[in-house]
Amino acid sequence: MKQKHSYLGILFLIMCLITVPNNLFAQAKNTVSGKVLDETGQSIPGANVSLKDTGKNTITDENGRYVFTDVIAGNYVVEATNVGYKTYSKEISVKEGESVVADLLLETESQSLKEVVVTGSSAPRSKLESSVAITTMGAKAIEDRAPSSTAALLQTIPGFVVEASGGEIGNNLFARGIPSAGAYEYVQIQEDGLPVFEDGALQFANADTFYRLDETVSKMEAVRGGSASIFANNAPGGIINFISKTGQNDFQGRAKFTTSDYGMFRTDLNLSGALIQDKLFFNVGGFYRADNGVRNTGFTANKGGQIKGNITYKFDDNDYLRVNFKHLDDRNTFYLPIPLKSNNGKIEGIDGFNPNYGTLTSVNFSHLNVPQYGGGTFSADLEDGSHPVINSIGAEFKKKISDKVTFKNAFKQTSIDLNYNAIFPNGGPWTQDAYATSVQNTTASNLTYSYVDNGATLDPNALIMRADLWHIEKKMNNFANNFSFSFDLDPVKLTAGYYYSNWKSNQYWNWNSYLVGVSDNPRLLNVKDNTTGVDHTWNGVERITWLERDAQTKGLLNDIYADAEIKATDNLTFNAGLRYNKDKYSGYRDNARFFSENLGILDNNTADDAVTTVKGNPYTYWRYDVSEWSYTAAGNYKFNDNMASYVRYSHGFRSPIEESFYDNAADLSKLENTEVNQFELGYKYSSSFFSVNANLFHMNLKNVAFTDILSDGSSENKFADVNNIGLEVETNARYEFVKLNFTFTVQKPEYDNFTGTNADGSTFDFNGNTARRIPKFFCNLRPEVDITKDFTAYVQFSYYDKKFTNQDNKQVLPAYKEVGAGLNYTYKNLRFAVDASNLFNEIGLTEGDPRQTTSAASDVFMARPILGRAFRFSVAINF
């Protein structure tokens, strides 16, 4: 009911704004306005626009829009400039009482250092004058990259190791060599400056689960390190901000249809325009998509969509009030490690299992129904996959109070209902001999294996394994508000603000183990002991509810921050930032009885002998307070309009993650915030044909938590320090009809203070080892060729050096490369494209199996490779 009232409230506000008499919106006479566009008609935010010989200058907003008011009647030249684009001038004539619309077209030269960015700073500033490492990408560049997911787009950013092998959602990002359990633990994903959810590393709720790329996106800005800890919580690794399109006076629309060789049907639509000219604007769009997934599950792997939009009322002096909303309802299959083998160092698939398209997720066991302790039945549907239903509503208000002071406030209320179902490998693969002796403590000859669906006997040489259906329900909500005052005290620009956020995540887990034959589209197995007559499975379920969890985590954040920009000279700028976090985390956890309950329902069957239950047990309530300072200082020197260099030091932190609170709820004394200290030296250069952005960094991290969930339901629960030194480089070049983008990262992340005792009493010493899942070198190379003015071809080459599955550095994940390619053709307002990924079906491993605790007793191992070769075809129309 509350959700319904929220939407009614938005509708009422829209109607009120539309029906206000037009004379209230009357603007000053004689205006000149328009948009700055590139060759394809896409808007260019941050372009410089001037009305020659009048002293009037401005910068285009996030939709490429500019406006000059109180223009005296006469003839003028309006000029648009942006480094990376050729200067464009246009003659106009302004008559008394007239509003002139003049759109300006810029032709691309190279990447711009004058481009204005807003992420990780208190006020918009050009890249040239920004003392942070930042990568930006507009709507056209995003479309040209043709990313299959949010994570796939982020792979283009140097310094970020992004694993996109999980499919469309649930992927992992490691910033500047910071190892973690995965997710977005040290980076915050934002939508228009506010987090998609306050914590992006909740269990099974990775931040990219709640964000989808579509035609409503105007721009992506990604800050690495630097000032991120001043402008976001728990984000010392960086901020990734997706900026939405807003409306303009002229009505514009874009529709797109996409299909693929894996059964995709996708439609995208975005509409924008003015409800009241020059005053009230709208943008609304979204998508619907269904496909079978690159890996064949036997059912529709991805199905759903979203709608999002905003309404903006413009005051004078570029002040505005904006209301925005989003509704996402999407289902996605999450891919996990599969069985592979090594042949003299070369990774190959095993017999009957395709390494590029196979998955343990199968329609053959998509529906689960098992009895429960205390009565009743638990049910789960694998075809639901990861299924978030998200509703968010927010607003943003900016008002210039005086010539020196500007006020800005933004808030967002988000509610999420996440129903998560995925198949996790959890033991094996075993030979049948190994399973009998290691798991059932008997001899192989005593056991018989048969398929559940037809009763046929399993081939004696076939491998078997556990494929768990992990079911998680999460009820989440988050209210976030950020307000600030900005003071223009030339030569100092000062911003002071207050950030408030409260969030809650209630979660319930119920995990069950299937026993399956190891093959593509695997089938369930039943196991029987012929000597005793005891069954070890029940309809293919080997362990009923072997793990159950009921827990809650809440956060209450009250943070103040300040940021100062000091223009010491025309060329030298200093920046300093400070943030104080006064945060409170609390919640409860169950005290489940692990493997302790015998349901007693199944006769002569061990599947219900070791059930875990939370029922009848007390809860442990916990609370953890955070009082931390984050700070940064930087200096940027501009040698000329094409070259600058900066130096920055920053100190930030990351609060303990959800799993750490659960594991240590009875005694939180061992928990500490992860302290992150960074030193950066940056260099930026741009000319009409070449640009480079290089960043040398050193990171020192104290008390990094390792909390992977193991196959027995326990957590690693280990802590260590990490040191990393590295270099990130991003280059762009253009010569006539050829463009080249090249990014690379070289680094050396190593453990320190990482010794201790394992659960079995053995000791470990990982000091000096390379941080897990982090390659020392990775790069992306993308040449583009304009075959004709309207016909473009590209190749995308990526390379990742070898890395290690675990802290002991014993299991190596070999180096691999991936090649993609595509063509796009533009005819008037139509764009046709074909894009291919992993053209040569490389078996590139992004992770091993961090949950593995048992020996396979064979040459087969578990790992998660990148997705196989896939083709996507699209056609888009602008109108």
Automatic annotation (TrEMBL):
Highest taxon of the lineage: Bacteria
PROSITE patterns named in the record: TONB_DEPENDENT_REC_3 (PS52016)
Gene3D superfamilies: Carboxypeptidase-like, regulatory domain, TonB-dependent receptor, beta-barrel domain, TonB-dependent receptor, plug domain
Keyword Disulfide bond among UniProt keywords: no
Compartments it resides in: Cell outer membrane
Protein's name in the database: TonB-dependent receptor
Organism: Flavobacterium soyae
Residue ranges annotated for the TonB-dependent receptor-like beta-barrel domain, each copy included: 369-839
Topology versus the membrane: Multi-pass membrane protein
Family assignment from sequence similarity: Belongs to the TonB-dependent receptor family.
Leader sequence segment: 1-26
Entry keywords, A to Z: Cell outer membrane, Ion transport, Iron, Iron transport, Membrane, Receptor, Signal, TonB box, Transmembrane, Transmembrane beta strand, Transport
InterPro entries from the UniProt entry: Beta-barrel_TonB (IPR000531), Beta-barrel_TonB_sf (IPR036942), CarboxyPept-like_regulatory (IPR008969), Plug_dom (IPR012910), Plug_dom_sf (IPR037066), TonB-dep_rcpt-like (IPR039426)
The UniProt record lists the keyword Secreted: no
Domain TonB-dependent receptor plug: 127-239
